[in-house]
Amino acid sequence: MRALIFKRAVRRAVSYASLILSPLDWLIKFSTIKQSRKKYIPIFIVGASRSGTTLVYQAVSCIHKLNYVNSIISKMPYAPIFAIFITKTLFSEKEISFQSEYGISSGLRAPQQGNEIWSRWLPKKGRPHKNKINSMFHNINDMQSAFNGPMAIKWPGFVAYLEDIRVVNADAFYIFIERDAISNAKSIYKGRLDLNGNPLKTISRIPRSYKYNGRSAAASVCEYIKSSQRDIENFKNHLCESQFVNLKYEDFCKNPKQYIQKIMDRYSDYSGFRLEKFEGIPDSFRVSDGPRLPDDIEGEMQSYLKN
Q1: 55-64, 115-124, 238-247: lowest mean pLDDT where?
Q2: What pLDDT is stored for residue 32 in this prediction?
Q3: What confidence tier does 263 reach under pLDDT thresholds 50, 70, 90?
Q4: pLDDT confidence of 304, banded at 50, 70, 90?
Q5: Out of 54-58, 100-104, 257-261, least confident range
């Protein structure tokens, strides 16, 4: 627990230190990007926390021509363009090991969820102002221009801001992830204990339709999952069918290559940007049923999710 708190403090300190590099960010933007800007459509990977979004993100990042936030970029949230410049200068290959701990992948060039970046515009409490969302998409466009290609973006907090995102940007492409609810609930409960020491304290942003105000940690976890799915389903009603792909975590683990090909085909048809190859994805992944919890907690979860 102390080690995790220390790591968070170090990441926060490093991210604020990147403010010093922000003038270099602007210099690169206006000297190179602004001269030859192309518009790319980003891919958002959205699902409840602990639902398999990191695994799908890692697999999607194996697609050629598709870019992502790596550890270098994540550590420089106030100078992401400069970080991309460093990445392209020093490295020519991706680094994807399919190993992670609570959304943090192993490796300097590995895909990261970029909490420090997206937290700049999406507050923990309250609704973000429309100008904030606009600013976020301007920065995403700048990052994609610096990469000279589209990005895959994953952060569990996005599920809390879907309606805000839709109002500002109607063109993005989405991959929606759903996991067996009980397995998902057990994983979140364990994650809250490991990361916060308190199963009532959330490890992600709260969805807009979240309704529970009681003191049961099991019910709180289950309501988070149910409200995440409610908000996702409502959000999909505003998208065209060609604009997203639905994935079940368990099915994806059994045949990831088939689903990655489906994502490539759907995105290529929708955006006009051809994604044609991927490499490094195994034939299957082990399906996790979640950790074992006390019988009374699992029983309460099953009862809540049935209602």
Answers
A1: 115-124
A2: 65
A3: very high
A4: very high
A5: 100-104
Per DSSP, the three-state class of 300 is helix
Spatial distance between the Cα atoms of 224 and 45, rounded to a whole number of angstroms: 18
Per-residue pLDDT at 9 exceeds 90:
no
- Indicate if the alpha-carbon torsion angle 163, 122, 140, 156 is positive or negative: negative
Q: How many CB atoms lie within 10 A of CB 207?
A: 22
For residue 111, how many other CB atoms are within 10 A of its CB?
Answer: 29
Q: In this structure, what token pair is assigned to residue 293? A: 């919890």
Domain count, the chain: 1
**Residues above pLDDT 70, as percent of the chain:** 92
Is the distance from CB of 90 to CB of 72 less than 8 angstroms? no
The span from the first CA to the last CA of the chain, in angstroms, equals 34
Residue (of 228, 248, 230, 225) closest to 305 by Cα position:
225
Q: DSSP of 171-191, one letter per residue?
A: --EEEEEE--HHHHHHHHHHH
In sign, the C-alpha dihedral spanning 179, 185, 186, 188 is positive
**What average pLDDT does the structure give for the chain?**
90
3-state helix, strand, coil in the chain (%, to 5): 55, 10, 40
Determine contact, residues 113/57, Cβ cutoff 8 Å. yes
Looking up residue 23, the CATH number of its domain turns out to be 3.40.50
* C-beta neighbour count of 126 within 10 angstroms: 6
The domain of 65 spans 2-306
Query: What was the pLDDT predicted at 241?
Result: 94
Beta carbons of 127 and 205 less than 8 angstroms apart: no
Sign of the C-alpha dihedral computed for residues 175, 181, 186 and 188 taken in this order: positive
CA neighbor of 235 nearest in space, from 204, 208, 211: 208
